[in-house]
Every structure is written in C-alpha cells, then in structure tokens.
Amino acid sequence: MRTPIHIALMLAVVSGSLLNACGARSPMQEQWADAGVEPDATLDAPSDVVYDHVNDINGCNPSTCSGCCDLQGNCRTGTQPSACGQGGYECVDCSSLGQTCITSTRTCGAVQPCNPSTCPQGCCHNGLCVEGASHEACGSHGMDCVNCASLGQTCNPYSLTCEQSSMCDPTNCAGCCDAWNQCNWGGDPWACGFGGGGCEDCASQGLTCDPFWGGCVTVEPCGPWNCLGCCDMVGNCQWGADDWACGGNGELCQDCSAFNSSCDSQTHTCTGTQLCGPENCKGCCDPYSGQCRMGWDPWACGSAGQICQDCTGSNMICGDSPFGGGQCLSISQTCGPNCKGCCACNTTGCQCLGGTDIKACGHDGQICQDCTIGQGQCIHEPMGNTCISTPPPPTCGPWNCPGCCVDGTPPTCVEGLDAWQCGWGGQFCSVCYPGEACVWQPWGGGQCMAMTDWGPPDGGPADAGMADGFAGCNASNCAGCCGANGQCRAGKSVHQCGRNGELCENCAVKNQVCSDGDCKNP
Fold first, then answer.
1. Can you give the residue range of the structural domain that contains 69?
2. Which of 24, 164, 186, 367 could cross-link to 328 by cystine, CB 3.0-4.6 Å?
3. How many domains does the chain contain in total?
4. pLDDT digits over 184-231, tens only?
5. Which residues pair with 519 in a beta bridge?
6. Greater model confidence, 407 or 484
7. Where does 48-166 show beta strands of DSSP type E?
8. CA distances from 152 to 156, 165, 387, 449 (A)
C-alpha cells in the first residue's frame, strides 16, 4: 500500500526538522563546513576524523583550537563580539545579533557595560566592546578605543596600538598590502598578491593562491590526494623515481643526487644511508621515520629541513612559512610576533623564552620545540634558531660549515664564494651558471645570482665582493633593501633588513633586531 503524497511530505518535513534539532547540518552548513579548495573529507587529518560533524577548515577543529574557528580556518580566542565561541566550533558574530560575547562563558548574551572586566581582549567604542584591531577603533584591555586614522596612524593588529607607519605600496612591498597596511609575502590563501597591490582572500572564494605569480587559482595543490609519486617545489606531481625527484604518496620530492645516492624505482626512496635535513628537504624531517614531510600538517609541522613539530596543542597552529612547508605559531594574545625567541604554551597561556635551549628552541614567536625528540640540536640557522637532526662531526654540514660542502669522502667545508664552489649554510656547493656570480651573504658563504653590474657606476673594481646593482633593484629605485632574488624589500624585517638599495641582511643570525634598516642589539 502506497503512502499518500501529503503524508510523505509531512514526514519529510518533520524528519528534516528533527535532524536539524539533533545537530545535523543543513545543506548551507555543509557548504560552509566544506569551504576550501578541497571537500572537507580530503582536508581531514587522520587524527581529526571524529570531528567531521563540526566545521573543519584548514585543520581548525576541537583538537587544534580551544577557542573558535572562523571561516578562513583561523583559531580565534573566542572572546570577541565578532568571533565568539569555544571548543573549536565555528565562531559566532554576536554583534550582528545586537549582542556581545560573554568572556566567562564565550557565548553571546545581552550587551553589558564595557569595562576592563567585561572586555579584556578588545576596547570600548560607544559603550560597546569591539575587537580593537581596526584603524578607527584600536585598543585593548577594555579601555576607550582610539581612532588611529584621525591621528594619521594605523592600528597594529598584534599590539592593538596606534603606530606611525609608511604606506605599503609597490615601492616597498614585493608581495601584497593587507587592510592593516602591512606587507605580506603574497603566497597565503588569505593574503594573495604581488607587486605591492592589495591582498586578495582566495580562501573565501574557494580558491588557493599560486605563490609564484601571486594570484588566485582553482588548480588543486599537489598532495597525497592526487599524486602517487612526489610533489616538487613548483607544485607539480613527479612520478617519483628520478634521482633528482624521488618519493611517493604525494610527499615532497627528495634530491638523492645531493648525497651521491640514487632513487629506488620500486620503493621510491633514496638508496644508501642519508640524513634528512636542510640539504635535501624543503619541508620537515619526521623524527621517527626520518622521512621528509610536506611540513604543513598540524602533527608534522616545519620547514627548511627542521625536525617536524607537533602543533596540535592549545594556543598553537601550523601556519605557512616563507621558506616552504609550515611553522608552528602561537595564537595566544600574550606571546607571538612580539617575541624574539619562542613561545612556551600550555592550557593557561604562553610565555616568551630565549629560544636557544635544546629543549626550547625557536625564533620570532614560534612555538618552542624540544630538539631532543629526534636526536637533534638547536642550530642557529640564517632564518633563526631551528631544531635539526645532525650527525656528529667531522662530516660537513649546517652544524659546522658556514660556507658550502665540497663532495668527497668525507665532504669538506670551503668558503663558498667561488663561482665553481658557491653556497652557504653547509649545503653542497653549486656551480653558478654563465651570467651568474657567487654573491657574498651576510650570514656566511655565497649564493649564485644574475648580476647587472659587478662594479661601481664608474667602471671601477667590485666593492669587497658586494654587488653594486641587482637586476631591477638598486639604490635608485629601492628605498629598502635588495633581496637575493633581485626584488626590492621593505628592509624592516629581522630576516631582510637594510635601506637605500643595499643587500638585505639577516639580523636573526646575530640575535639582533632590525631598526631603521640596520641590525642592532635589542
């Protein structure tokens, strides 16, 4: 016997209501939860499959976030009116409901008098607690908001204070300029662009950012979900059996030839004994298997051949690194980019440490790492203090060679400033191509670069091994400093410091900070 149509429709409506009441997601909620380049299921880490019933964007979920997750996948504190919540669930905009965020429960409620006790993370604007990171309403600790724009200043989104800052534009930014007038490198999905233009939010459009030309693209990034071989540094899938591109299951390709090794076409691994590190891994090195990982998974986060770090704890997230792979970053209000060392975090908060200890190693506000996991050492790399798996001397490598290593038995360390033996940081030496020269680097050794002028304008001799002119970057067109790729940088970063078109200097290698284009003691 058939069920009458009107009864079937009634059952469908009732069952749908019951499902929503029990916590099932509506079709629109499914779209929100699946925001991103890939569907939600393909982004899920093996350890967070149990959280498929909640919003899970780019790894933000109850296992990685004690606050709430916004639609860009960022973990927020959950105490702000525009982003209220806890337990790794989706943030709620209380202000759109005419309410505020109750900080003690992190839930929306009736608007309360704004003061330091009811608005500890933001500032008071017309009696309401606001986030405190806009140019028109800047501040924290429940104090009155300051209109930075009326003072000709901008609001620092980290310190929530008004600051004098030069406008971000093509003359001082090779990446893109965000809403806070800050220069970003331009390869992040939420801040994509180049040439000093405005940053574009690719993630909100369901796209990703191509870091090589600074634009939003629909191409799915190379990874385990679409590559049986290995992914090269350009993002192409290689078959994984070449000596220069060896690997499988969508992992980062390894260069076996760097260690006089070859790629086993059956196992897609380099034959012979080799150590995963900066010489052959752009991601991070698994402390247990020794494999080179991509470096942007929360449970295996890292870049430039450092030991992979577990970033699944509270107050931390695996963010993008300008060196490839990822970096374990603090999302705490108390410790972050304002820390020159590393942030030691627990469930109650974070503390800034020096970052040079083997059990607390890191730089520029990253989460402190215990280098003893993986039998590593806290090495002072050009980018800052980093955990690296290091074999004992006397073999040549980053632990004992500021120049480059000449292949041999055993490898030997040379200065690294000759065109036929050029390199830095204990890498294997490279031979510069015709038209290139080996340019001295402030942290030691050299780097092969195409030069337009190796002498001063009068045609005299070269100045102490320093290049006088970069391709497209020099004192006549760059108020900041010239990077290794010939681009004009702002010159205000601790890793790229300088002015008047000089070669950018890495202050971090001297434990110094960048001030007015010069490396100085903090």
1. 34-151
2. 367
3. 4
4. 878 788 888 887 888 988 877 777 777 656 788 766 667 776 788 887
5. 514
6. 407
7. 68-69, 75-76, 79-80, 83-84, 89-90, 100-102, 107-109, 123-125, 128-130, 154-155, 162-163
8. 13, 9, 42, 40
- Mean pLDDT, to the nearest integer, of 331-357? 81
368 & 474 share domain: no
Distance CA 410, CA 456 (A): 40
Extract the tokens encoding 410: 């055993």
Total-model pTM: 0.28
Task: Please check whether residues 416 and 510 belong to one and the same domain.
Answer: yes
* Beta bridge mates, 300: 297
CB 152 within 8 A of CB 190: no
Tally of CB atoms within 10 A around 6: 8
Per-residue pLDDT reduced to its tens digit, 465-510: 333 333 456 777 777 777 655 656 667 776 678 888 888 787 766 6
Q: What is the pLDDT of residues 509-519, one digit of tens each?
A: 666 778 888 88
Asked if 424 and 452 sit in the same domain, the reply is yes
11, 4 Cβ separation under 8 angstroms: no
Assigned domain for 27 exists:
no
- 88 part of a folded domain: yes
| The pLDDT of residue 409 is above 70 | no
Domain boundary among 151, 166, 186: 151
- Does residue 252 form part of some domain? no
Percentage of residues of the chain with pLDDT beyond 90: 1
Residue 311 DSSP code: -
Residues 205 and 145 in one domain: no
Alpha-carbon distance of 401 to 395, in angstroms, equals: 10
335 is written with which tokens?
Answer: 């410790």
Instruction: Round to whole Å and give the CA distance between 168 and 161.
Output: 18
What local confidence, expressed as pLDDT, does residue 6 receive? 45
Is residue 262 in a domain?
no
User: Which letter does DSSP use for residue 415 in this model?
Assistant: -
Q: Does one domain contain both 209 and 280? A: no
Helices (H) and strands (E) in the chain, counts: 3, 52
Give the number of other Cβ atoms within 10 Å of residue 8's Cβ.
11
Q: Are the beta carbons of 187 and 166 closer than 8 angstroms? A: no
Shared domain check, 96 and 54: yes
Per-residue pLDDT, 145: 93
